[in-house]
Design goal:
Structural class: mainly alpha
CATH class of the largest domain: Mainly Alpha
Order of helices and strands: HHHHHHHHHHHHH
Number of strands: 0
CATH superfamily of the largest domain: MetI-like
Helix content: over 70%
Number of helices: 13
Largest sheet: none
CATH topology of the largest domain: MetI-like fold
């Protein structure tokens, strides 16, 4: 009986030994997952809170920007700040100028970057490494360090206080990064497709336009989004090279709302919301393609 009772105890102990570690590991995985969710929730709240505050403040009156509850009642909401943004602050003119500058800059940067990236990735010529290193070295120079030389150069070409001059500056400062980015994507495209097209009698332009260019279309879209964000949100160069109120882009226009002694916070927040709308719309429209472009270079063909 003692032996049988010992065997029974061993039989009962075996499942406990086998199940115990699995149960503990399952509990650890769930605890780790809950911890990740808590961290992500806190990070999301920290990111959303300033945006929510800006939106709610833009719907208040000037004398109640920092008074009352965080979420005002329905009777306190007013769109007067948005009306004043277009009629008094000149946000409409800045919006048009920013759209024009951003669109022209994106077209120029894409044109130069696609051709330059393809040339660096697919052609071997004398001095290619030295030229590429020179382009990479320009990324180490901050914009503030070359601000005065740029100002003198633009003034020499009589492009100071003009949108074409600002477009050229944006293009020149953005091309190095864009060329490096496109070179990496072109290097990851399968070269066998280009060789097969050449064997079939395709010219080099036909290989570029009909074979290679469609393969890097997600990368081109990604670069366009990056360039849009830079040109749309850029402030230092626009504030430096533009002085006429009619030629100011959106960010200097918004900065002009900030007063030395007092600031109309609902008007400022309304202008910020207006500047955020195009970015949100753009990302909502091309979200999937943008993510595909970010991961396009992860695998080599």
């Amino acid at each position: 009986m003692a032996l049988l009772s010992g065997q029974a105890v061993d039989r009962l102990a075996v499942p406990r030994i086998l199940v115990g570690p699995k149960t503990r590991s399952h509990v650890k995985r769930r605890a780790a997952r809950c911890g990740v969710y808590v961290v992500l929730t806190v990070a999301a709240v920290l990111c959303v809170f300033p945006i929510l505050w800006v939106i709610l403040t833009s719907l208040r009156t000037a004398d109640s920007a920092f008074g009352g509850s965080f979420i005002p009642s329905w009777t306190e909401w007013t769109p007067i700040a948005y009306l004043h943004a277009f009629t008094q602050a000149g946000v409409g003119g800045g919006l048009v100028n920013s759209l024009l500058v951003t669109a022209c800059t994106i077209c120029l940067v894409l044109f130069v970057a696609v051709l330059g990236g393809y040339g660096f990735a697919r052609f071997a010529f004398r001095g290619v490494r030295l030229l590429y290193l020179l382009i990479v070295s320009t990324l180490m120079i901050p914009i503030a360090a070359i601000l005065i030389p740029l100002f003198l150069e633009i003034k020499t070409f009589h492009l100071l206080n003009s949108l074409p001059g600002l477009i050229l500056i944006y293009t020149a400062t953005s091309v190095p990064f864009a060329v490096i980015l496109m070179r990496g994507f072109f290097q990851r495209t399968p070269g066998e497709l280009a060789d097969a097209a050449r064997i079939d009698g395709a010219t080099e332009w036909a290989v570029f336009l009909q074979v290679m260019l469609p393969l890097v279309r997600p990368a081109i879209l990604t670069l366009a989004v990056f360039q849009f964000l830079f040109s749309w949100n850029e402030f230092l160069l626009a504030e430096t090279f533009l002085s006429s109120p009619s030629k100011l882009t959106l960010q200097p226009r918004i900065y002009a709302i900030v007063g030395m002694y007092s600031t109309n916070w609902p008007l400022l927040c309304a202008s910020l919301v207006i500047s955020m709308v195009p970015i949100v719309i753009l990302y909502a429209l091309i979200q999937r393609k943008f993510v595909a472009g970010l991961t396009a270079g992860a695998l080599r063909g």
